[in-house]
Amino acid sequence: MPFFVTKKSFPKILFVSSEAAPFVKAGGLGEVMFSLPRALRKLGYDARVMIPRYASIDQEKYKLKTIFENLKVPTDAEEENQPQYLICNVKKFESPPGSHRAPVTAYFLENEEYYEKRANIYGYADDAVRWALLSRGVLEFLRATKDWKPDVIVSSDWQTGFLVSYLNQNYKDDPKLNSIATVFSIHNLHYQGMFDHRFITEMDFDDGHSLMPSLFNPRLLKINAMRRGIKYADIINTVSSNYAKEIMTADYGELLDDLLRERRSRVYGVLNGIDYEKMNPETDPHLVKNYNVKSLEKRISNKAELQEKFNLPVKKDVFVIGIISRLDEQKGFDLLFPIVEPLLKQLGFQLVVLGSGDGRYMSFFQKLGESFPEQVASHLSFDEVLPHLILSGADAVLIPSRFEPAGLVQMEAMRYGAVPIVRKTGGLADTVDDYNPRSNAGTGFVFKEFDSFALTIVITRAFENYRHRLIWQGIQKRTMEKDFSWEKSAQKYLDLFFKAIDLRRKNVSG
C-alpha cells in the first residue's frame, strides 16, 4: 500500500548541490537550487539546501553561523601517511521568517583545503575529491547532528551522485541514514565525471558495483558518479519529460541508456520552472517600457532601446532575432555557419547575440557582425541586464540545440512575448508548440531534424508570419499566457518525493 504523508508529517527535503543562488552561482543549476526549494517552502514544506562554503561566499552578508565544528569525514585512506579523516565545519544560513523572496535555510560544508582556498566553483584537477568530500560530509553531518533530519535527499547532477553511492553502500546499515529516501536529479547527462565517458578504457570503466575508493586514490577521478546516482537512487528525475524519454535511447543516452532503460520504472521528467516574480515584463526595472499581454504595443520602445544598445539602426518594422546562450557545441550554432549570410541578405532581419564560450562560435559571430554591421551585433561576455533587453525587445529568440535537457531561455522569452524558434528536443519540445496556420494555434516555430536546411525553413516561416501583424500578436499572446511557474513544477516534484519515500520504506522494511 502506498505511503501517504499527512499535513502533520510533511516530508523534510534536503537539496545537495555544488552551487545555489544567491550564495554562489555558475549556471542554471544554481538558479534551480534557489527557486525550487523556495517554491516548496511556499507550499508549506521544510526544504533546505547544502553546498560547500566557498571563499567567494560572503559570510557577513548572509550572517552564517557555525553550528558544528570538527566534523570528521572519513577518507578511507589506504596508506599510512594519509589522514583517516578530513576535518570540516558546518555553517548555517537561517532564512528570515515570513520572507518569500529570501533563500531557504542553507547549510555550508567548510574545509580550508578543498573549498576556502578555491576562487572558483569548478575547474580543478581534484574536483572529484571535492564533490566526494561534499557528499560524504553531508552524510556525516546528518549522522552527527540532532538539529534536523531530512526524509528525502535530492542529489543534483554527477557532482553529488557520489552521495547516493555512499548512502547505499557505506551507510546501508546505518539506522539514522538508511531510511532517508534519495532522488537523483539529472540536469545534463552529458557530464558524468572527471573524464570523457565516451573514450574510457575497459580497465578504467566504473560499473558502479565496487565501493568508492579513497579520497586520495587516483581511481576516484575515473568514478562515474552519474552512473552511480542512476544505479542507486530511489527515484531518478530529469528536468523535462521529453528528455526523460530521450535519454533512454542510444542517440541521447550518453552510454547510460541501457542502465536507464533497466530502471525505467523509476525515471521521471519534471520540467524546470522560471521565477515569475523576477522575470516579469510588468515590473522588470531594466525595461524602458513595462507591459503585459494586453499592452504588447509598448514592446516597440524596448525594441528601439535594444537596437540602440547594440548600435544597430532603429527600425520598428525590421524582424529582430535574439540569441541568449552559452556558445558551445550543444547549442547547435554550427547549423548557422553555411546559411546565415544568405538569410541575412535575403530576409534583411537583425540578429542580436549575447553569450560566451567556445572560441570558434565567438569568432564566428564577431566576424559576422563585421560583415553585416547594420544587421548583426554581439556582446560576447556575461551581462545581467542585456538578457532583459533582448527578451523584451526582440521579436523572436533562436535556440537550435543539438540536445536541451530543459532550457530556460525559451520559457523566459515566452514570458516576455519573444516568440521562440527552437529545435524539437528535450525541454524545448515540451514547452514550445509549433505554429499551425490552419488552426491558428501554437506558441513558436519548431524544426525537427538537426540540419541547416531545416533551420533555414523554420527561420523563413517565422519571418513570413511576422509580416502578418495580427497573426504574430496572436502567437505572442499565447506564449505569454503559458504557465511555467516554479509552483506548478514543485507540485510535481512532491509526487516524486512521496514515491521515493514509499520505495525507501518498502526497501528498509523488506
What do you see in this structure?
With 510 residues, this protein is an alpha/beta fold. 34% of the residues lie in helices and 16% in strands. It has helices at residues 28-42, 112-116, 127-144, 161-169, 225-232, 241-246, 257-262, 299-309, 340-347, 359-371, 386-393, 409-416, 426-431, 452-466, 469-480, 486-509, and strands at 13-16, 47-52, 65-74, 85-93, 106-110, 152-156, 181-186, 235-238, 267-269, 320-327, 350-357, 376-379, 396-399, 419-423, 445-447. The chain has a nine-stranded mixed β-sheet, sandwiched between helices. Strands 12-11-10-13-14-15 form a six-stranded parallel β-sheet, sandwiched between helices. Strand 11, helix 10 and strand 12 (376-379) form a beta-alpha-beta unit. Helix 3 crosses helix 4.
